[in-house]
Each structure stands twice: as structure tokens, then as C-alpha cells.
Write the C-alpha cells for this entry.
Amino acid sequence: MRQAVVTGLLLMLLLFVPPLLFAGPGETGGTESAPPSSAPEETASSSPLLDSGTVLRVWNGTSVEEMTLAEYLPGVVRGEMPATFEPQALAAQAVAERTYIYYHLQGGPKDAHPDADICTDPGCCSAWTSEDKAREKWGDKFDEYEAKIRQAVTDTDGQVLLYDGAPILAAFHSSSAGTTASSGDVWSSDLPYLRSVASPENGDTVPNYYSVVTVPAEEFRDTFLSAHPEAKLEGDAAGWITDVTENGSGRVESASVGGVTVRGTELRSLYKLRSACFTVSAGEDGVTFRVTGYGHGVGMSQYGANQLAREGKTWQEIVAWYYTGVTIGTMPG
Ligand SMILES: [Zn+2]
């Protein structure tokens, strides 16, 4: 009997140890997230950040600047998520960004910037906002927002999302329409951790959740023909778009336009729609898209993360929600 109790206690201890691995060194005294042995002896009361041990070459459009991950990450969280968001959503964003960096470090520099690991162009890598720019943008709120951003980064120091022991492509987007998209719905490869999952945001919590784009018929035709000259777009626009199909996440999978089958993602890009979750109708005014959500829909929804945080979920629960089957830990080796 006593043996069973002791075994039970041991089991409970074992079960409760892993969450300690998720905590930052400030919370655990650094025991689980000790700095590398090559780091200088500690003299201050707080441990050096793991993020300070990684140096990045950052292309800012005119020059390559070296900065540590600890210096880079606040800039990218400032640039990619509203500072008004819940602390646990900001922490989830910091972890996604850190993971994204390590994923790209492993793949080597992009062709767009062969001498840098990452750039500050949101169309290529991630948006990056300097402290000075943030001070201008946030005005009176700077101290409050900056403290939140920095806490999101330091509270998750060194923590990344791993699948099969490697950092994942931690894709994220602004908002989804009820469910996120699988990576294969949007890109060519279907990654096991980027699956379609439910996402709780809606029109009450997301600004511009619903948007309408009307493209005059001539403009619609010219734009489409520039990409697909073989399309037959004559006569009444009402007959131009047919056979619209949806994928499992409610986004447009494909449509036939003037007899040419294209993906919903291509229509999104051609007509600058906020997402590929849309309905389309055509008439005398031209072609009208009614769009829900914003972004490619893959991985973590930022507004969804904020909603989950409001409901009391931690950053660990938020990333586990959006990235299927990942583990949280520091970079291996
Ligand atoms: Zn880039």
C-alpha cells in the first residue's frame, strides 16, 4: 500500500517536471535552461539570456547589421503583432518568431540576401520595428507596450517549437475564418505540423474581418489575361467564373475563370484579396469578392491566439493548439 503511494507520488513528480522546462531561467533559477558551458561565469543575479548566444546578420535594405537574437526578437514582435494583445499571445508570437529564425538559419541565407540570415522586409522575412520607431508610433503608451514585448521575449528565452527534433516552419497569419488552412492548401508541401485546426476569432474581435472587393469587369479581365492569356473572357462577366470548389478549411481551392482552372490562392494574389476564404459573384458592376479573415491561413492565427489568451490559455497551450504535434524546448545540440 505504502509502496503504491510512493510510486504514485513519483509518477506525479515525473508528470509535473516537464512544464518546468517551459519556464524561462528567471522563473527556475536557470537550472533547466542553463547557459552553454562556454559562457562567462555569472556574476549578476540573473542568468544571461540564451537568446544572447545567437548572433544574426540582419539585412535592413541598405546594410547588414549584426545583432543577437535577444536584440532582434523584440523588434520582430513589435513589427508583427499589435502590442495591445494579451501577454500570452505575445509570448506565443515570440516563440514562433524565434523558431522561424532557427528554421531559416538551418536552411542557409535566402537568395534575396545571400550575406544575411534574415531581413526586415515583411514580404521576404518578417517585419522589424526598431525601438525608436516604436517610440514614435506608440507615443505615451511606449513604456507599457515595450515592457510587454520585452517580457514576451525574455519569458520564453531560448524556447522553440520542434518536430522530430528540428525547428519547425512556424508560419502564422493575422486571422482565420473559423479554421486555419493546411500548408498543402496554400503551398506545395504538406507539413505534418501545419494542419487545419479550429480558430476562435470572429467578426466581433477582429477589425475588418469581413471585406468586399469589387473589380470592374474590364480590369478583372485585363488582370487575369496578363497571367493567363489563353482565358476566354468575353461577353457578360456573369459567366466568367464557374466551378468554384472549397478545400477542407473553407477556403477556395480552385475556380474556372474563362475556362482556365486556377487556385484560390492565385485569385487572392491577383486581386489583392485579404484571404483565400471568399465568395465571388459577377454582374454589371464587375466581379465582387466577399472575403473573410486576413492572411494565408497557415499555422498560428494571431487574433485566434489573442482570443485563446483571453480565455486563459498559456502560450504553451496556444502554440500546441496551432502547431500540431510539436514539442517545446531549446535548440538541440
Ligand atoms: Zn528576407
Observations:
- The mean pLDDT is 88.
- The chain has two domains: 53-202+296-329, 210-292.
